[in-house]
Write a structure and sequence with these properties.
Blueprint: H1 3-20, H2 30-39, E1 55-60, H3 63-72, H4 74-78, H5 89-108, E2 116-122, E3 127-134, E4 140-149, H6 151-157, H7 161-173, H8 184-200, E5 207-216, E6 221-229, E7 236-242, H9 249-254, H10 266-278, E8 282-289, E9 299-307, E10 311-320, E11 324-333, E12 341-350, E13 353-362, E14 369-381, E15 386-399, E16 403-417, E17 422-439, E18 448-462, E19 468-484, E20 487-499, E21 542-554, E22 557-572, E23 581-592, E24 595-604, E25 609-616
Parallel strand pairs: 1-3, 4-6, 7-9
Antiparallel strand pairs: 2-3, 5-6, 8-9, 10-11, 11-12, 12-13, 13-14, 14-15, 15-16, 16-17, 17-18, 18-19, 19-20, 20-21, 21-22, 22-23, 23-24, 24-25
Helix pairs in contact: 1-5, 2-5, 6-7
Length: about 625
């Protein structure tokens, strides 16, 4: 032993000797001594001192408790020291004596307040230490006293309906009702969760006024008492906008959607932040308010934004199961000619589809409305025909967290060309589109429902049919439901109909077709539709499709799911004799940050062949 180590080691051995007698008593003072001993291991290698790794530890307890003791008992940690970190029999005796008290304290955190713990060490080599645990009954919650005081209680007593609902929702949420097993971790999480809910509801300075868990060891029950002080309800005051350089701060204020005096709930601010992001003008946003209770009646709200560049250009290549490989070019100008308006152009050139889409839209104004002018030109080739579609729209749109609406005047034109025919049709129309969502997540939903509806009236003309009026109606409902045990279900129903005289023909973009990724899988894009006398596919007057899918994550890859699905439906000239086509198969889902990436292998029963479908995102 070197001179440099002799003095510290001598002091350590003296400390162990002084603590040895006290360590035989199963009290809490033993645990720190064990930690001290572990922090400075002995370097003595005499023949009378066994190596630490020559001692085996066996814990006889139910699996979850065994893991807890294995992780936290001092004797468990010291039993795996290396050969150079040796301790003598005296220290082992102290650790064995201290283990029962340590084990009881650990078991209490899991709700076991009357366990029987026995520890013994049998000499070796190898020596064996056995910790035998009989946990006894786990404490159950017998009674819960959850009280709220402060401004929330005052408002409730005054008959405020919102305040009453907040307290009702808090009691309904409470995760430790009578009969529930008691654990320290669950009790702490429940208190933290209750505070979080109050703060999210606008009571930003909410605190715990008192809490207690009274355990009756004889009856193995506990009474929980929690008193929360809500503090004041924080309401919006002055809106301060920072970071706006090239745009107008008016757009940031318009997207707030609330004024002075509005309760500053967490959901209100999340929705505001989401609207700023969806505006396409900012890449980062931070919203905060002054949480000083002294200014709660009119708390200043600060919005810090970082603007996207005035112009952006995106080039891309990809492939679609519907239309094959493609290249895309997208350009956005976010303040055209100095006006508060955005111009977006997208050009796509692919094997089967070539298209240009352009839109000029104002920045969001009051109630989130934007005025827009949009154009689209598309050429789509199939094995049987080529369709040129052109569209112009002038209207207004509104985007909120749950609702998107669009109403416009439109002009549609289509030219369908085959080896034998050239059909041209035009139709001005007035249309209204609506999307309504109630989802747990817009990007990766697992619970909720969406509805998409369209309605319009117009006048159609063509070079091959009569002119006449028409009415168009369409609806699509999609539901998401967790089934439990890791299973999830998705179901979709869509239907549409055009009301007109049989002799009137519409542009292809207004007629119905089915088949493809978000329609009936197992069939090519837009191929489930009626055909004319030459065998060329045309748009239908009616549409009905349905889909049911179940999915489950892989155990070791929770973001990757496998799925099984059944789709059915088609477009037709009328409901008379309507017979849906059937497709079914298996697929994979990667739940990426930008939405689900879907890979499906589907079998189309009518065509008797398999087809691969690949898509990204959710269709509303």
């Amino acid at each position: 032993m070197t001179r440099r180590l002799a003095a510290p080691l001598g002091a350590l051995l003296a400390t162990i000797g002084l603590c040895g007698c006290a360590g035989l008593l199963p009290d809490r003072s033993a645990a720190p001594a064990a930690d001290t001993a572990a922090a400075a291991p002995s370097a003595d290698t005499t023949a009378n001192t066994p190596a630490a790794n020559a001692t085996a530890l066996h814990i006889d307890a139910p699996a979850p408790l065994r893991d807890l003791l294995q992780r936290h008992l001092d004797i468990a940690r010291l039993s795996v020291l290396g050969p150079q970190e040796q301790i003598d029999d005296t220290e082992w005796a102290r650790l064995v004596a201290a283990a029962p008290a340590q084990a009881r304290e650990l078991l209490q955190t899991e709700g076991y307040f009357a366990p029987e713990v026995r520890v013994r060490r049998e000499p070796g080599p190898p020596a064996v230490v056995t910790v035998q645990v009989e946990p006894g009954p786990q404490v159950q919650v017998q009674e819960v006293a959850l009280t709220v005081r402060g401004a929330l209680r005052t408002a409730t007593d005054a008959g405020d309906a919102d305040a009453r609902e907040q307290i009702r929702a808090l009691h309904a949420w409470w995760p430790l009702p009578p009969g529930e097993a008691f654990r320290n971790a669950g009790w702490s999480a429940a208190k933290t969760g209750a505070l979080t809910r109050l703060r999210a509801a606008g009571y930003a300075s909410a605190s715990i006024a008192a809490s207690a868990a009274e355990v009756d060891v004889a009856t193995h029950t506990t009474k929980l008492n929690l008193t929360l002080d809500s503090g004041p309800l924080f309401r919006a005051g002055e809106l301060r906008v920072l970071g706006v350089v090239k745009q107008d701060d008016t757009v940031v204020r318009n997207l707030a959607g609330f004024g002075p005096g509005t309760p500053l709930t967490e959901q209100l601010l999340f929705d505001y932040q989401d609207r700023l992001r969806k505006s396409g003008l900012f890449d980062t946003t931070v919203i905060s308010f002054d949480s000083d209770p002294a200014v709660a009646a009119a708390s200043p709200v600060t919005v810090q934004v970082h603007e996207l560049p005035l112009q952006s250009l995106t080039l891309g290549v990809g492939a679609s199961a519907n239309t094959g490989p493609r290249a895309t070019f997208e350009h956005t100008h976010r303040r055209i000619f100095g006006y508060a308006a955005t111009v977006h152009n997208k050009v796509e050139y692919g094997r089967d589809r070539q298209a240009w889409e352009g839109e000029l839209s104002t920045h969001p104004g009051e109630r989130f409305y934007r005025n827009l002018v949009g154009t689209q030109v598309e050429r789509l080739r199939t094995d049987l025909d080529e369709v040129l579609s052109q569209r112009v729209r002038v209207g207004r749109t509104q985007d909120t967290q749950r609702i998107e609406r669009l109403y416009f005047l439109g002009l549609d034109r289509s030219v369908q060309t085959t080896a034998t025919v050239h059909k041209e049709a035009r139709a001005p129309s007035v249309q209204y589109h609506l999307v309504w969502r109630d989802l747990d997540s817009v990007i990766l939903p697992t619970r909720g429902i969406t509805f998409s509806g369209q309605g319009g009236v117009g006048w159609a003309t063509s070079n091959y049919a009569d002119n006449g009026a028409f009415t168009r109606a369409y609806g699509r409902i999609t539901g998401y439901l967790p089934l439990g045990r890791g299973w999830y279900a998705t179901a979709r129903v869509e239907a549409g109909q055009i009301f007109k005289r049989d002799a009137v023909a519409l542009p292809d973009a207004l007629a119905f077709r089915a088949g493809g990724d978000d329609s009936v899988r197992g069939y090519a894009y837009r191929t489930l539709a009626p055909t004319d006398v030459d065998g060329v596919i045309t748009g239908g007057n009616v549409l009905a499709t349905a889909s049911v899918e179940i999915a489950r994550p892989f155990a070791k890859l929770p973001s990757v799911w496998w799925a099984a699905f059944v789709d059915a439906g088609r477009a037709a000239d009328s409901w008379k004799g309507f017979s849906p086509a059937l497709g079914y198969g298996l697929g994979l889902r990667w739940r990426s940050p930008v939405g689900p990436l879907r890979f499906d292998l589907a079998y189309g029963e009518e065509v008797r062949r398999f087809r691969v479908h690949v898509s990204v995102g959710i269709a509303f």
